[in-house]
Each structure stands twice: as structure tokens, then as C-alpha cells.
Amino acid sequence: MRKKLMLIDGSHRKWFAASVVVLGLATVVFITYALGTPQGVSGRRGFGLVCGIIGFIFMLIAGFLGARKRFRSGESAGCRPGCGRNLWLGFLSFPLVLFHANFHTGGKLTTVLVWLFGAVFVSGIFGAAMQHILPHFYTTQVPMETIFEQIGHVREQLVRRRSR
Questions:
Q1: What confidence score (pLDDT) does residue 43 get?
Q2: Spatial contact of 88 and 12, defined as CB atoms under 8 Å apart
Q3: DSSP class of residue 45?
Q4: Are 51 and 96 in contact (CB under 8 A)?
Q5: For position 45, what pLDDT does the model report?
Q6: Helix (H, G, I), strand (E, B), or coil: what is residue 146?
Q7: Is 143 helix (H, G, I), strand (E, B) or coil?
Q8: CA 85 → CA 8, 14, 71, distances in Å?
Q9: Is residue 13 within 8 Å of 71, Cβ to Cβ?
Q10: What global pTM score does this model have?
């Protein structure tokens, strides 16, 4: 069974718009809270704690949605419109965790974990962009590309065409 790609198309508009709105609101609240609180944002109380909890919940949901997609079988295993919810929840979780920590990492282990999380975040965005860009590129720049399983069939067609 051939794996279907998750393209960022019209079905993602609502999730993208909601993600931008939530991120914008969180940023405004973070800046307002950070400027209005003498001790600044802390992950132990107030807005920082809320951001940490929501970011963690988003990470869990994104992980479970991704795992569910991997373990499903049959016809419904492919990607259908709107199935990229885990992409947008993962996209929101990273800035929320940074707001939770007030952009500080703390000790060595925390620093390593934040850098790893950042690498996963950036690679996820890069991967989603490549899944969107490369199919279009290959269909326009490499029009004679053939799927490996179909090489025998295409070869037979070319031989028949040549012998005419």
C-alpha cells in the first residue's frame, strides 16, 4: 500500500488560522504579563504555568494523533482532508513552552531538552514544507518519473510503442 502524503492544502486553513490566532493572543498576553509583573513570567505560577500546561497537553495530543495514524490499518490509513491537526498542535506547543520558561533554559538537562525540542520543531516545519513543495516540483520538473513498482509495465508500453 502506497503511503499518502499530508499536503498543506485548503483543509488546513481553519487549523492554520486558529493556530495563528492562538499564538498571537498568547504572545500579546505574554508580553503584557511580562511587562506588568515585577518578577516576570515564571513557569511556577500564573501565565507561565498555564502556558506550560497547555503546551504539554498540545504535545501529548499531537503525539497521540501521530501514533493513532501510524497504527490504523485498512483504507482509512491514508491522510484525509484535515488530518494534519498534529502538525498545528505541535506548531503551537513549542512557543507555549518557551513562554512557560520565559525563554530561559535553566540547567544542562533542560538546555539539551529545549534544543532537542527546537530541532524537532524546525525539522517538522521543514518536513511539512518539503511534503508540500517537492511533489509539485517533481511533477513539473521531472514529468517522466515512474514509480518503482510500475517500471515493468511502463517498459512494456514503451517497447510496444517503439515496435509500431
A1: 66
A2: yes
A3: S
A4: yes
A5: 73
A6: coil
A7: coil
A8: 11, 10, 17
A9: no
A10: 0.65
Number of H helices, E strands in the chain: 5, 0
Asked if 14 and 144 touch (Cβ cutoff 8 Å), the reply is no
Position 119 scores a pLDDT of 92
Q: What is the mean pLDDT, run by run of 10 residues, along the chain of 164 residues?
A: 54 80 89 80 76 87 76 52 68 87 83 88 85 77 75 86 82
- CB distance 15 to 85 below 8 Å: yes
The answer to whether 117 and 62 are in contact (CB under 8 A) is no
Amino acid at 53: I
Spans of all domains in the chain: 10-163
Cell reading at 116: 532537542
Q: What does the buried/exposed string (b/e) look like for 56-69 if buried means 16 or more CB atoms within 10 Å of the residue's CB? A: eebbeebeebeeeb
Residue 71 exposed, middle or buried by CB count within 10 Å (0-12, 13-18, 19+): exposed
* List of residues 6+ apart from 69 with CB closer than 8 A: 77, 79, 83, 86
Helix-strand-coil split of the chain, %, nearest 5: 75, 0, 25
